[in-house]
Amino acid sequence: MSDITGECFCGSIRYQVKGGLHDARSCHCSRCRKAFSAQASAYAVVRAHEFSWVTGEQLLTSYVGEHGFGLQFCSKCGSTLTGVFKDQVHGVTLGCVNGDPKVSISRHIFVGSKAAWELIPEGVVQFDEMPPV
Ligand SMILES: [Zn+2]
Ligand SMILES: [Zn+2]
């Protein structure tokens, strides 16, 4: 399988993932809406050792919220590229992935607190909060 690549809007920062993306999900909670500046997050988990920055890492800036989970974004264009947990890359935002990473969003979570203006298409797998384990 060829490497998955991703980059920010201005193209200054690029990364690659050797191996696949996992557990692609979309969270509609109010915090994710703000973090992703969108109706929901679109995010997939990576294995930290399979992820590497190709170029522009020095342009990254980050915001770490409560619980130690943070996001890294491009200081030039503002794209959010990765999620970090305890200084390790935890996952990538699907919006910055190039091409087809061969995953699809398998679950929409916290749909119970979605924005009033969002219409959820019929047929998507959705949960009001976290899905049962
Ligand atoms: Zn950028
Ligand atoms: Zn959320």
UniProtKB/TrEMBL annotation:
<dbReference type="InterPro" id="IPR011057">
    <property type="entry name" value="Mss4-like_sf"/>
</dbReference>
<dbReference type="InterPro" id="IPR006913">
    <property type="entry name" value="CENP-V/GFA"/>
</dbReference>
<dbReference type="GO" id="GO:0016846">
    <property type="term" value="F:carbon-sulfur lyase activity"/>
</dbReference>
<keyword id="KW-0456">Lyase</keyword>
<keyword id="KW-0479">Metal-binding</keyword>
<dbReference type="Pfam" id="PF04828">
    <property type="entry name" value="GFA"/>
</dbReference>
<dbReference type="GO" id="GO:0046872">
    <property type="term" value="F:metal ion binding"/>
</dbReference>
<keyword id="KW-0862">Zinc</keyword>
<comment type="similarity">
    <text>Belongs to the Gfa family.</text>
</comment>
<feature type="domain" description="CENP-V/GFA">
    <location>
        <begin position="4"/>
        <end position="128"/>
    </location>
</feature>
<protein>
    <submittedName>
        <fullName>GFA family protein</fullName>
    </submittedName>
</protein>
